[in-house]
Amino acid sequence: MPQEAFRVMLRMEINKGMEADFERVWVAIGDSVTSHPANLGQWLSRDAENEGVYYIISDWESEERFREFETSRRHLRHRERLHPFRSGGSMTVMHVVSYLPGSSDSGSHREWEEAAL
């Protein structure tokens, strides 16, 4: 991920009983976002403690390119497809200032603990 990426985080509250349909539709129409040349990827996460709450995180090359997408017809159609599932939500935007990759594939837990000592 470029260190100067622009990140968008949506918090979405989904109508009770519509969660599975929301997840299915989100995946089915996701390429309307990820196929934009400035999109670096996006994630859908379900809140572990609050039923019906989801977070969508989307990374972009720059704020300018995201805003270009945000005002496009493509984005409007994407939002219209997800709107029937939604009972509330919010959007947070941010500039990524640093990125430290994890090393989940290298070494065991024991090696990590010993290195920390």
TrEMBL record:
Gene3D superfamilies listed in its UniProt record: 3.30.70.100
Annotated EC: 1.14.-.-
Alphabetized GO MF terms: monooxygenase activity
Record has Cell membrane as a keyword: no
InterPro entries: ABM_dom, Dimeric_a/b-barrel
Domain ABM: 6-94
Keyword terms of this UniProt record: Monooxygenase, Oxidoreductase
Keyword Transit peptide applies: no
The protein, known as: Antibiotic biosynthesis monooxygenase family protein
Taxonomy of the source species: Bacteria, Bacillati, Actinomycetota, Actinomycetes, Streptosporangiales
